[in-house]
Amino acid sequence: MYNMTEKKDLIEHLEELRRRIIYILIFFFISVVISYFFSAKLLSLFLLRNLTLHFFTPLEPFLARIYVSLFSGIIVTLPFFLFHLFIFLWPALLENEKGPVFYFVLFGVVAFGVGAYLGYRFLLPLAVKVLFSFGKGIAEETIGINNFLKFSIFLIIGSGSVMEVPVITFYLARSGIVDTELLLSKWRYTVIIILVFAAIITPTVDPITLLLVSLPIIGLYLLSILFAKITRR
Fold this sequence. Notes:
This protein has 2 domains: 16-50 and 60-92; 95-233, no CATH class. It is 80% helix and 2% strand. It has helices spanning 2-37, 39-44, 60-89, 95-133, 145-162, 164-174, 180-185, 187-201, 207-231; strands at residues 53-54, 143-144. It has a two-stranded parallel sheet. The radius of gyration is 22 Å and the shape is flat.
């Protein structure tokens, strides 16, 4: 009887999971379709001043609309996905786990949003300007719209992902999974890792751009460790 009850509960959970995945996929599909009707306006958000984009094949303008619609669909679906994830996992969490998990996801989403906005608003124009400067006197830029979109989306998502470092660090230290003293003693290695990661998401050898990306992350990383150390006392 006990095994039958467990099996029934497992089937019910799998059925609920399947149902919520279907809801999320339907919501994502609808979001992409709606975004496509506004894709021209969405594409205009990626246009930088004094930058002319080109397309080289008849299919490229359509693909550009698809790319930006998919990107918009992912962004719009993210809160809906997190909502269903919470509803599904909430009953399995202990009372003392619900608060930390909720705030971890909340701060993670906010940090990603802030990082993505900073990447779009400041880092993208700066990276384009610096990269183009290497071609002055050598060749004239002719930028394909799809290549520029891929570059922009990669940079924006990368900037948002980098901002997750201090959030993850704080909660790992706060929960005791990693030792704050160990993290502080290894800060030099962490700085090197952050610099390498920042160099990957900012495809430019310009040191100013690299520092603009990495220094805030390093500062937030150290502050998150100190704050976790204080709150654990």
